[in-house]
Structure formats: C-alpha cells, structure tokens
Amino acid sequence: MNHPHIEKAPGKQEYNITVYTENQIGLLNRIAIIFTRRKINIDSLNTSPSEIESIHRFNIVITETEDVVRKLARQIEKQVEVLKVYYNSNEDVIWQELALYKVPTDIIADKVSVERLLRENGARAVVIRKDYTVFETTGHREETDNLIKVLQPFGLIEFVRSARVAIIKDSDGFNRKLREFEQAEPGEDVIENEYLNLREKVFTV
Amino acid sequence: MEIAEKELTNVTETKEAVEVSGSVALLEALIAEGTDTIFGYPGGAIMPIYDALYDYNDKLKHILVRHEQGGIHAGQGYARSSGKVGVVFATSGPGATNLVTGLADAQIDSTPLVCITGQVFAHLLGTDAFQETDVINITTPVTKWNYQVTDATEIPEAIAKAFHIAKTGRPGPVLIDITKNAQIQKFAFEGYEPCNHIRSYRPRPIVRKKYIEEAAELINKAKKPFIIWGQGVLLGSAEQEFKAFVEKSGIPSAWTILGAGAIPSDHPLNVGMLGMHGNYGPNVLTNDCDVLIAIGMRFDDRVTGRLDKYAKQAQVIHLDIDPAEIDKNVKSKVPVWGDCKETLPLLTELVERKQHTEWLATFRDYERQEVEAVIEAEINPQSGEMTMGEVINQLNQLTNGDAIIVTDVGQHQMVACRYAKFNNTRSNITSGGLGTMGFALPAAIGAKFGAQDKTVVAVIGDGGFQMTIQELGTIMQSGIDVKILILNNHFLGMVRQWQELFNERRYSFVDIQSPNFVTVASGYGIPGRSISDRSDLPGALKEMLETKGSFLLEVSVTKENNVFPMVPQGCSVSEIRLR
Q1: From B204, B286, B413, B522, which residue has the greatest number of CB atoms within 10 Å?
Q2: Interface pTM, i.e. ipTM
C-alpha cells in the first residue's frame, strides 16, 4: 500500500539481528510479535538449528534506525528462552541469500550459452532433466535478482529465494562459547504433541 | 477418579516415586511452592484438576469467583498485598479468554501470577473441539512466559519453572495450559523439585560497580537532585534499603502510583506523586532538577508527559532490574542495571550524607501553592456537594493510613492515590499501566486474602463497579471482609472531564445510570448505606469500618468535579495546570 505521508525516517538502514535461542515451540511467535506489535515489517527471517544441538539461531533483517533496533534487541533478549541477541549493520556481516531457478531445458539449451550464463552469474546447475533444469546461485539480493532478469526471457518457470543468512565479522569464538555453554548446561528436549496421530486410540471422557 | 490420599503424604519428602495423576502432581507442586489460596472457576476441560482439588480442601483454599476476570484480578490483589505469587484456575476456551484482561494488567504492572488453564485432550488440539481455543498464542503477548503441557510427566517441571519465572527478575504473569489427558494421566511422581535456574534466563543482572561509582559521583556533586521511584522498590522488597538511601542522601523523593507506600506518605523527604494528576512540585521540578534518580520505574507516558520536554536539563541515573527499560523512553547518563535491593545499599554506601534544605523548601513552596489552589477546596469543602477528596480525607482520619486501599480506574483512582495516606508498603493496589476498570472489587477480595490482618477498602467509581459487580457473589460466598466505598458522581467521570476540557463539553455517552447499589448489595447479603449529605459522612465511614464483615457505602459526590492538577496530554510536566 502506498502511504505518501509516511516518509522513510532518516537514519534507517538494514540491520541484521542474530538471535540464539532454546529450541522451544512458540518462541518464533514470541519473537515475531515484538516486531508486529510495533508495526515493523520483517524483511527476511531465517531460523535453523545452530552448530550446537538444542540451540537455534535466528537471522532477522529489518530496515530501521539503530535506536529502534537496539530497543527491539533488548525486548527480544528479555524473552525467557532467548540466550543472546546481536544486531549488526550490513557492513558488519558477511551475508548471502540462496536462490533456485527452474527453466525449460529445451529453450535454455537451445538459446543460451549455458556455460557463460553460469560463469557470469556464479550459478550452477543442480538438476538437469529433459523437461526442466534447476539453477542455483547465492549472493546478495542484486545478484540473485540479476539472474531472474537474465532467465526471464527464456521461460522462467519457478523462482524461489531463501531468507538471508549472515555471519558476523567480529564474532570471535562464538562456536567455542556456545559449545562450552552447552557442555556446562545441556539443553532440554522439546516435547511435542505425540497424541495427534493416535486420535481415537487415546481415551476420551 | 481414584485418588489414593494416603499414598500422597510426604510425597515431597520421601522422594519415592508415587503413581499419581497429573492433577494431583499439579496440586502437590502448588503446595510445595507455598500456595495457600487459589482463585478459580471450574469447567469441562479442567474438571480432573477440580476433582483432585476436592481432596485438598484442607491445604488449598479455593475461592470460587463469579467470572474468570474476577478470578485473575483477585489473584493480582492477592499477589500485590502479600508479595507472593497469585494462583488462578480457569477452564479452556471462554474461561481462558476471560483471563486475558487480567494477564495484560499483570504483565504491564509486573505482578507475579501462575494461571492454570484446562485444555481439550491433546489429540483434539487444532480440531476446533468444544471449548478449544489457542490459549498459548492468544496469551503470548500478555504473559512473561507460557507453556502447554500435553503429558502429565511434564507437570512438575512446568510448574516449577512457572513459579521461578513469575517471581524472579521483573515479575510477571505465567500461564500453563494443561490438556485434559495430562490431567488424568497417571505417572510415577518422584517428588517436587523447585526450579532456581533456567540457562537462557538471567533474572538478576550482574551489578557493575563502575556504574554505582559514577552514579554516586553524580549524586554527590548535584545541587538539585531528585529521586523518582516506582513499584520496583516494592517488588524487590527493598523498602528499607530505599529509605536508608533517601535519608542519607537527603534527596526529595516522589513516587509513581505503583510505588506509593515504599516510604510513608508523611516522611519528610516524600514530596508526593508524579504524573498527569500528580502533585505540582514534583512535576514542575522534574524540569528543574540537575540529577534525576529513577528507581524501579519505567517512565510511563502518564508520568513523563511530553517526552522531548521531559527533564532535558537533568542527568538521569536509572536503576532498574529490566535492561529493556534502560534508555527505552528516557536516555540515561548512568544506567544501573540490577535488583535495587542489591544496588541501593551499594549506592548508599558511596553517597555523602546531606541535607538539601533549600531545594526541599522549593518543593514545599509548590506544595503550599497546590494546597491553596486545589487541595484545600478538594479535601475540606465548606459548602456544596461532597467531593471525592473529602471522603478520602475523612477515611484517612479513621484508618490512620494503615488500611490497604484498592482502587479502580478513573477520577476516584487519581483522587484516592493523591489523598489517601499510606503508612505501609503494599497498601496502594491499583491498575496502573493497563487502567482496567472493574479491577478494584475482585482485586480487593484477593488483597484481603493476601493480608488478612489488614483493613481493605475498595474505592470504586459508579462505572467501574458495574464492570465486575458480579464479584459481590464471591464476597457473599467466601465471607471475606471487604469494605466497598463507591464514589458516585453519576458520570464516567474521567472521560467526562476530558470531554469538558478538550471536547467542548460534548458529553458523549458518559452519563451512566446505576442501579440502587445498596439494594444490589443487600441481595447478596452485604449490608450497605447510601449518603449524600456531608453531615452523614464521618458516621457512615465509621459504620463501614466498624461493621463486622463486608459493607458497601455509596457516597454521592459532586457530579462535574475535575481532578487537578493536570498535565494535559501532549504537554510537558512543567506545563501542569492547577485549574
């Protein structure tokens, strides 16, 4: 929606928020509502297990001023199951997004110098079938966007891009710290609802 | 259901696994946590717990409320008066959703609660089963922590964590949702182990000496230092430490409404109340002090008024246990993260013993102006209809400031907070952050259960009383002794005041009619009296306080009185109006 009266505040830029958490059902929601409550859009969100079993890592990208990001980070860190929060500008991180492109093999093989295309865009072919081919590339937004533009004329069938993952440049020894932490205090297993599949086998009253 | 009561004796001591149901494990856990009173309302999905409760009547007192909102406000009142964790039971679906207002209230006012909700069978989750609602997601924004239990074996640990989280750090409400199968399921209960550590949760920030030293240096150099304190002092049970700090540093101190009572109202360094309807001096001089020392308060907008004109000249020292509060609204020069019970003595040690006689006199000078312009007419009117202030003033003379005053929300709340005398901590119980009308009556019931040796007076407006009036039934059935003082101005007074001041007297839907409150009370077997004549006031208040058991006193007060002073919305605290 167009809101001409809302101007982009000065000082806003992309920030990468890195959150280390326990693996807990409902935590994604607890973190997400910290943003939605303040009507802040999440540009990108990636959550996956970290290198340490039982500790998860969120990568969240938003466009905001540092003052707002600092307050958000403190609100996130306040959540009981959050271990640690960092926030960094794009200059402070190495970041990548992964993209997959599905194109018809006949057209692409016929009309494109595939080798050059792959080389110029740092892409590789993941699957080559008679009917379609899937390319993959990683990079910044402009780079993955660029390959869309290149492939669009050749009948791009499907495109998908992952959320951003980012490594913090000056994060000395995170891995070591996390490992020590996990050794000192092992995480707990998540208890999921195992009754869902049992249905009528479960007693009812 | 079978409950082998004999097996249960000394469950916690023997540490031998005993086969019990999830419900029994829950009740044993509550007892182990020191729970003596539960406010609740049964229903389908929590029936196994209520069935178990039937055999625990001697150890756990269950107060049957008339609505789950009343239950949770009673839990809040209990927690606020006793300093313990309030425990509330509700069933699934509507029972659980009726808790939401109280959870939001407890969350914003940092009240420790453990709420137990029943839930449909685990295998029915997500099927739109009867009375199923997604309680965990509904309550996530308004709880400090919540958790769904689907297996009985999880119960002891979930309850242990719930209590630990609710009462430590910055306290708050916790909700545990227990599916019906988990309540019924039997398991080998190996005794209850309280939780005192969660690896991702650090309720006590490490105190950094550096900041204590910096703070002390600022304070020692200050010519016009000013202390503003909030509920953090009460929540940290740091009243003594706070008093020692105030008295040694000799600094004038003002309170937020939730901080009232940490030091007595008539303490020589207590200069009054902050905020929109606070006292004149504390508001004006916030913008004149050179060092502002904020202790356990969060710079709510009702305290700061317009933020970009708030204490800009001052260097701010902010003591708070919650790091997210530091620099949230007001940028601090020295952040002192930590429990003020820990940080205040360290600070007291380093500050010089001083008397800021002249500076204190400035506060007293503003006070004199306020007395002349506002207070005298409010508490000692010579003619016309009665005012809310004079009722509270007369009440003070009878209670000597030793009663617990529970207020609802609106004009009467501001008047009661301004004029009630508080000799003791935990004696002003009100809905501060959320401003929940309907809070007072159920909260007063809970407050009395939490502090049975105290006189509890619920001061309520005619509007708010009608929001939770059904809790008269709880009073009737439990026989609890709560004095209900209705200040009836026949209006939704605070909204009317704003409409008068800011909407050209366009009184849009604030003219509220009330039933005959005394008749309603008598229907519940509660004696009452209604007065509108000044000469009846002392006698009626006396009758209310001296009557054994609950009593309802309705006082008709002047209809269109305004609460002053007032910091109009969007104005700076120094632009406070006396009329």
Answers
A1: B413
A2: 0.92
